[in-house]
Write a structure and sequence with these properties.
Layout (H helix, E strand, L loop, with lengths): L2 E4 L1 H9 L2 H20 L9 E6 L2 E7 L5 E7 L2 E8 L1 H11 L1
Parallel strand pairs: 1-5
Antiparallel strand pairs: 2-3, 3-4, 4-5
């Protein structure tokens, strides 16, 4: 069973969102968890593996047309790392790639 954690950067951005945006993120979170339980993701979430380094795999999920969710899978752990638009996620990734 996977363990799910949230980085502070993720939670900080989440807290700044409107209630309707938060609902979209919560829904995406549920879908990602379901993906790990059933190994099938809905098309709308559009989970994409961005890169792999050792046993760490970094993924992007499309929450909406303007919102992306970045998470890292490593062994039995899934860490929700960052929320933002496409450009913000791209810049965030450049910082640790």
């Amino acid at each position: 069973m996977k363990q799910f954690l949230y980085k502070r950067a993720f939670l900080k951005v989440f807290d700044s969102y409107t209630e309707s945006e938060k609902e979209l993120v919560i829904s995406a979170d549920r879908e990602i968890r379901r993906y790990y339980m059933k190994q099938s993701a809905p098309y709308g979430l559009r989970i994409k593996k961005l890169f792999e380094r050792g046993d760490e795999k970094t993924f992007e999920a499309r929450v909406s047309d303007k919102m992306r969710l970045l998470y890292v899978e490593s062994g039995g752990l899934v860490v929700f790392a960052f929320l933002g638009n496409h450009e913000q996620v791209r810049r965030y990734i450049k910082g640790f790639k």
